[in-house]
Specification:
Chain A is built from 13 helices and 2 strands; from the N terminus they run αββαααααααααααα. By secondary structure, chain A is mostly helical. Chain A has a single domain, classed as MetI-like (MetI-like fold, Orthogonal Bundle). Chain C is α+β, with helices and mostly antiparallel strands and 443 residues long. Classes of the chains: A mainly alpha (285), B mainly alpha (276), C alpha+beta (443).
Chain lengths: 285, 276, 443
Amino acid sequence: MRKERHWYLFVAPALGLFLLFILYPLVWNFYLSFTKSSLIRTTWVGLFQYVRIASDRTLLNALYNTLYLTFFNLLTQLPLALLIATLLNEIKYARTPFRIIYFLPYVTSIVVAAIIWTYMFDPDEGIFNWFLRLLGFKGLLWLSHPSTSKLSVVIFNLWHWLGYQILIYLAGLQTIPPQLYEAAEMDGANSLQKFSKITIPLLKPTTVFLVITGTIGGMQTFQQIYMFGTAVGNPGRSIQTVVAYIYESGWVLQHFGIGATAAVLLFLIIMAITVVNVKFLIREK
Amino acid sequence: MRKSILLKQGSMGAVLAVIGVIFLLPFIYMLSTSFSRQANIALPYPPQLIPEDFSFFNYIVMLKSFSVGLYYFNSGIVTSSVVGGVLLISSLAGYAIAKGSFRGKYFIFLLILATMMVPFQIIIVPLYILMLKIKLYDTRLALILPVMANGYSIFLMIQYMKSIPDELLDAARIDGCNEFKIMWQIVLPLCKPVLAALAVLNFLWNWNSFLWPLIALEDMNKFTIPIGIAFYQQQFTAYYGTMMAAATVAIIPVLILFVLVQRYVVRGIALTGLKL
Amino acid sequence: MKISKQVKGKLIIFILCMVMLGLTSPAFAQQKTTVKAMMIGFQMEDWIDPVTGTTFNGFSRMVEKFNAERPNIELKFTSIPWGALIGPYAKTLSALLGGTADVIQTRIVYIQTGQFEPLDEYIEKDNYDLGKLIAHSAKVTRQKVAGDKEAHQYMLPIYADARLIAYDKKIFDDYGVAYLSHKPTMDELREKGTKLAGTNPVTGEKTYGLWFEGNYSAWAFLTYVRAFGGIPILENGSRPNFTSDASLKALRWLYELREKEVIPAKCAAISGDPPGWLSKDNKHAIRLDHNLAITFLAKERGLVERFGVSLNVLNKWGYAGLLGASDVPAGIAKLSENKDAAWEVLKWLLSEEVQRFRFDNNRVFPVLEKEISQWMKEDNLPYADVIAEQMKLGDPLIGNYTKVITEGRMVIRSTISKLLALDITPEEAAEVIQQEIMTKVIL
């Protein structure tokens, strides 16, 4: 083809940036994982770091926290989002104002939101405990105790992400042809049956999409952890995620080799999740 | 029958309203605390909707030492450059892959898909060294360039452009238009919805970006809003009222902007959910 | 074709932006010598105290003055705040790796990277008197790095710091407990703290005995290990020793007081002061490991009569608390091309003018020994004697700031946080600290 060459000009900017700012750093990170490095001094240690992190209890803890948070995020967010989206889809007034309100948290910077929520979670003067005490409970320690800190983060994430999921579900709901419901009504189906026999199955692709994006996003949780419990995820590392661990290893403890090794691990996990999910998705289609 | 519909609609509205209030609670709490002068010693307890000691004092304190205007300016420059760059680069690459034919096209497509799987957090350290080496450390370009080629945006662009009929392009080709002109004058105008969606999404992703700017910037005069407020928080963390005033000015303008353009945001987000 | 115009417009704006950015980034050709200083904890902007409303001047004014007075030097001054943001680390690294700064303030442990210029020649040339700096402080920054035959003065301290114990006399009065002694022991703190926790007999409010900053617990913890007679680091600071009896005693002390609610549960993950501290509504009797800002705050808020201070807990070697003066000193980067000008800047940072400015406007104590008491007296600041005494008592063992302590403190923090949550026993905590420092810090 005579004109073939100029197509390369079209993809050149994207390719150039990818090579320089993603691929090259990725390879470099891979190299770093075989070293002991403070960035000032770097020595080759082969597979040492891989052996090391395999027995690192802190990393295992971070991995557990990350999976825990991701799992409970999805478990709380998706059903609630679907429920609210269904209500929004059926309500005949004030739909836009509601939609705006639910979406506001997603637009809010996590850093700023985390500052506000830290105050709201305060065990002594926070608004949550004030409310609990109003109802006659003792109040919780929220972010100040390992037994409730994860719960606090799950609640925070629920608030921050729900609007996004509601929107996606709403868009999905609007693709379902109303005739389906009408036909079901003629067959005498009640609301619950319609919901479980029509809505949920037809929204499966949407749910799968949300699970994939939610899992990948969840694996990369960092900002709120950093703001709530510093890079170690206090209290007592109870909310430290893998990305926080990578951050701590490098920028705090100056062991960039360990950080890089954990980063490779995270990369592999995310790749595995994506591949599994995509396969699942393709089979569905 | 009519009565029951009314009842149903009414109760749905009530449920949604209650949830809405819960969603708004942090914003209300932020605003209310920011007007309490005593909140600089301890949080008002029990919480008050309108503080007894209502004053603008916290805003005066905050504006003196928190360069919020500068941070908005920086965030604005960085984010608009990123959005502009993403739109241009995704259009070019998307068009070539959707409509062009050249050797290695499939490989490049796979490469773009693969980049979507690389979490940005894991390449931050090498990226930091790279920026030091190419002398871009502590510049705005360091924040802009790495996110300008975005796999997801290109992917979305390809998917969308594929739906444009080839006949349109062939007609233009016969008229002797070159490919760039075809893309610019025929394809892009048809891509308005996806361009708007990408603009919105990339704005959201980059406006609140935190970890990379935290590491790549040193000069406070170049700080973006999230970094600016995180640093401010380090100095004024004990002064709840002043912190809440800073939080207010850091997010309220963005929220207002969102309300103004919410239609496009909603459409953009919805599009991503349906395209994959 | 409306859209294409819009896109074109955007594109043009975008390109303009890029060009503008491109123009502003590289340094312009200059006659002047440019010195870049990368510092920590300088308040650059003018600021208002959020409690009292007093206005203070920002350090940018001093930088402007410096530049106005020295036409041949252009000083570019950057400062990163203290705190959990590990900003300073990334910034130090970039300064050392990329030569992006000439004068660098950072943790003393970075001397051992070998990236700092020895200052001995400059000191000799100018006949610079290090004797005016507060006790020990310049000694600790005199070190040997790999390849050195003798120790060199690699860095200089530029401020002084110490930790005290502060307490609320009113709560002591309400409970009828005698005030803390001048030199409290661990036992005294335990006894009085326990008595002061509960329901205030006068006001009926709930009070806590002790406040402990769980997110920044490392220095305090080390102080207590030392107070129980422990040596937490061995062999020139290269090996941790946290399974000793003393360290267990310190951990048990914390655990027990936390269990009895003498230390509030909230302390497990907290930065800074308790709510209402240094106000009339205070409910926390004793605040451990308090920084020196209390002298300014108590005076400004008119609470000098109400709050008292004591020395940090003394150990059998006669020291108490961290040696703050040389924790985060400043030096000249080896890669710097303007070392002479950088030395001018370093001297300026130690000058009376700058030290006084920071004392008055930034609540930072001078590293100049004589001036500490003098300025406190001039400004009529409270607690001058205790502060002056505490300044000289800093523990040189902690003051070494070796890797075990500098980097191990994150391990200590997260473990103490867990201990204060009663999520781990003191015995386990000792094991975890020891083992994590061995595996995470030393390798």
